[in-house]
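Re: [ENG-882] Designed sequences occasionally contain unexpected residues at chain ends

Forwarding the minimal case from QA. Structure tokens:
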């Protein structure tokens, strides 16, 4: 199980250095990973800087999707044809009898 606890920068610095910190109630919490919640970068890299998070978090999904190149499909081998297969029934009793939705 994992849990995120939002803390102030002073406590985040202590947790990053020691690997643990104490809550206001005095309970000790082990910090396995300390990172900026906005840009998801390790705390020691962003310590003392403003967060570089963009409003739409495009940096987390690999940039702007509209300007990124699309994946290229490999061409079929020379001298081959792509033939459409038969229609697969995915619902109903026929699908069950064919084994589409039935566990092995």
């Amino acid at each position: 199980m994992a849990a995120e606890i939002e803390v102030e920068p002073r406590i985040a610095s202590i947790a990053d250095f020691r690997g643990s910190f104490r809550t206001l109630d005095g309970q000790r919490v082990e910090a396995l990973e300390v990172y900026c919640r906005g840009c998801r970068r390790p705390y020691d890299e962003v310590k003392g800087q403003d967060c570089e998070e963009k409003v739409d978090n495009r940096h987390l999904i690999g940039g702007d999707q509209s300007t990124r190149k699309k994946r290229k499909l490999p061409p079929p081998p020379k001298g081959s044809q792509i033939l459409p297969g038969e229609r697969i029934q995915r619902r109903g009793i026929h699908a069950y009898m064919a084994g589409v939705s039935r566990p092995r």
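QA comment: On inspection the terminal residues look reasonable. The chain has three helices and two strands. Proposing we downgrade this to a documentation issue.
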